[in-house]
Amino acid sequence: MKKILYTLFILSCLQTGIFAQQFPNYSLFIYNKMAYNPAYTGVPDAPCFTALHRSQWIGLEGAPTTQILSANLPFLKRKLGIGVQLTNQSIGITRIFSTDLNYAYHILIGKGELSVGLQGSIRYYSENYNDKRLTATQGLGIDNSIPVGLQNKYLPNFGAGLYYSTDQYYIGVSAARLLQNNIDFGNNDDFVSSEKPHYFMMGGYSFSLNEQVKFQPQALLKYVNNVPFDIEMSMGLELLEKYLFAVNYRAGGEISAGAGDSVDLVFGIQLSDKLMFALAYDITLSKIRKYNNGSVEAALQYCTGKFSNKNIANPRFF
Questions:
Q1: pTM to 2 decimal places
Q2: Domain membership flag for residue 65
């Protein structure tokens, strides 16, 4: 059954790739804002280094996995930010390795700070059509529209964003992958699939319930042309500026046909002044829930120096 599902999944990707969301999901988006918005670069008071791993749809062969290593570095008393993110993704026979370079300039406006960010990226995109999991009754080589062997290419792109934050709230808008690169590997000249611009909007607010507890609702909105609108919402409680308990909901474009994509349980802990760990478990709600055991995501973040909490209520959790 799993091999049948895998084959159907690959075929559906080949036929409908032009309409698919091409940006990975992150249940820990509240800790991973730079992946969506280059204007977040340099917003934390101290340099922060983050490692993240995500295994999606555990138990389903060929399901997506993602690893991230990133550095978010403020310079010139936080007037500038430089960021680097390395991302490794795999799904089925596809492997993508991305390098993103971010630059942001920060301006004090009113009680908060406005950041303007730019991103340049290059992706190594490959598909292995010799993968033993791919099968066909008459052989894959008969159809000239299907490539053979290992296919690869490099895809340059760019993005931009705005991010405004105060001591209580933040809001950001961004656009990624603005160049519509051809991602076909076929042996003919037909243009089937391309990278599509992705548009994001994020926001959050921190309410102090008392001296020890903060309520922190946050949201991430996603839009890609010809793809159902997606929204992720997070409702979190921060305790003693050390623990975070949150419940996320991801619509995933499935809300009109069912309950949505997933409900995610998130736990974060400040292990020390410099080290933070976060873990998320996704409970699948979509039609694929019968064939997987959910998704798991973990992040470890190390920030040098001390935070002044001048521009954001809690840079580790918010």
A1: 0.85
A2: yes
